[in-house]
Write a structure and sequence with these properties.
Elements lengths: L8 H16 L10 E9 L9 E2 L4 E2 L5 H14 L3 E5 L8 H9 L9 H7 L5 E2 L10 H7 L26 E3 L10 E12 L2 E14 L4 H4 L1 H4 L3 E3 L2 H13 L5 E6 L16 H4 L7 E3 L24 E2 L4 E2 L2 E4 L7 E12 L2 E4 L5 E6 L15 H15 L2 E5 L3 E2 L12 H18 L8 E5 L14 E2 L2 E4 H7 L5 E8 H11 L14 E2 L12 E3 L2 E5 L9 E6 L2 E2 L5 E7 H4 L13 E8 H12 L1 E2 L1 H4 L5 E3 L8 E2 L2 E2 L3 H6 L15 E2 L1
Parallel strand pairs: 1-4, 4-5, 8-10, 10-11, 11-14, 18-31, 20-29, 24-33, 26-32
Antiparallel strand pairs: 1-15, 2-3, 6-9, 7-8, 12-13, 13-14, 15-16, 15-17, 18-22, 19-21, 20-25, 23-29, 23-30, 26-27, 27-28, 34-35
Amino acid sequence: MKLRSATRLPLLLALTALAACATTAQRPAVPDGTRAQLAILETTDLHSNIRSYDYYQDKADPSLGFERAATLVRQARAQYPNSLLFDAGDTIQGTALADYQALVHPVGCAEELAMYRAMDALGYDGGTIGNHEFNYGLPFLAQVSDQAMNVDGVTSRDCAGPHFPLVLANVFSTRDDRPIYPPYAVLERTLRLDLDGRRVEAPVRIGIIGFTPPTIMLWDKRNLEGKVYSKGLVEAARQFLPELRAQGVDFVVAISHGGIDRSHYSPEMENANLYLAQEPGIDVLLLGHSHTVFPEAGRAGHKRFANIAGVDDERGLIHGKPAVMGNYWGKSLGIIELALLRKDGHWTIDTAATRSQVRDIRNADGSHVAPDPAIAPLVESVHEATRQYVATPIGDSDFALTSYFADVGDVTALQVVNEAQADYVRRYVAQSLPQYAALPVVSAAAPFRSGFGGASDYTDVPAGPIAIRHAADLYLYPNTLTAVKIDGATLKGWLERAAGRFNRIDPQQTAPQPLVNRSFSGYNFDVIQNGISYAIDVTQPAGARITDLRHAGKPVQPQQEFIVVTNNYRASGGGKFPGLDGSNIVLAAPDGNREVLIDWIRARQHLRRDRDGADRNWRFVAVHTRGPITFVSASGKLALAEAAGLAGIRLLHDNGDGTST
């Protein structure tokens, strides 16, 4: 039975309870002391990467894809006789295919979304809603997830949705103060056991409860304000866990689209699972959002969670409770080998015998597991339609627009975005906001793809014809264009926050020092152009690095006013930039940033480097160091840095994984 609303939850429980009564008599009693193993399998942050395919480069990419994670699922099911499969959110947005079904050729009510169709082929047991699920608006989300929401602007109707329950406990309608999804569900499942040499079956009741980052109210303010509100994870858990535990469940799995943060708890906390794990009604945690893995045991590189009190990064425990977080884009599968012990007529978790792990689609020898052949045929038509759409030509360029060297000053992938955004707002101000006509309009853009996901995770638009797919590569997210009015002091603070992209450099150190702070996301490295110039001093601490800040060649004064063009995410507080909280928005455009860029390129037709890709408006303050300063980019791209006029860059070594230092 498919869940549709919180009001139908008691009916579901009643029916499953009747089913349990009907089958109990047919099963032998399971004595206390009986042991069982149940594998909890998790995907997260799939971001609609169904196929192992890069639509922006129009080529296969074996390093990602749900179709390969599906192979890991089938392998795990063959290994573990008892298993459940869940998804932790950020599922339906993130690729050109997702945008095609939501924005270009919206999927009809009777047609199941491609991502959910693929997931149904594997038979998921449940899932939750991630923050990016809200990007396309509540009407679209309600339709494709077949969820009746008592929310302004949403029409309740039966549509084709996923064949598994979606639960979400911390987002409420402003109409009735009830959750817009069922906050929890109870799953009746059967364990296959070996009892004294006999193969027997025994029932188990699992409660699932879902959570999303409360900060959706900032990130998707345009879609959510006045319609819904969010609660903190702990507050929502305390509201609904007593109801869920009262259903007689053996244990509760929290499916929480969030990571692990040691900061002090607040109801607005983005990654609050360190505190959610302390709630007595929670037994297991499935995490996501952070685009990293937990536990990190056996993995090379910096350990993000190794030194957090209450976190066991070897076994995968948070305050003694089993937890796992698989990687993003279908790159891996999270697995908790849950050891169960029968006690007082119920199943309990034996934590000492429980382990968590993350299995990758990338094999130890660098190859990748084969895709599950059942997935591609399910989405072939929309896959090909997406490819045809993004191949639509819109212009051409005499230079490559790339982000391989955006961290060291190359603006070829940013300047066209900033020019398009600024042009849109200048025209709008002239027509509709004459009170701001005297203010300079400048624009902020960030390199969304800057290597976080490996050697293929860079913007790469070659010289020559430009198609829609290239514009989608230049502007990855379905944001809407937004402009804010700020002063010079806030402008400097904005750039200071962006300069957190860099580590602090010690000029006296002889050992190599990495320039880029890999924990600082590339999408927060805003470059502000259109008459703005500045320098970054990486020898200074974060917050004190921006020098020689100028507009039109003159020093920027603290009280000087500007209109800065950005996106709805940033203008509403996304990224925690100072002075940006949604209160100083002067334009919330109905047009998406990507659509603005596409229209601008169509009007421009021919991009030239000297006009559209050579405004290297920021620089590093010159520093003499005793040792090398290093950064990582994709291999074989040094000629692009030279073509962009970047000096002082040399290849140290190839890292053997498609990247070089």
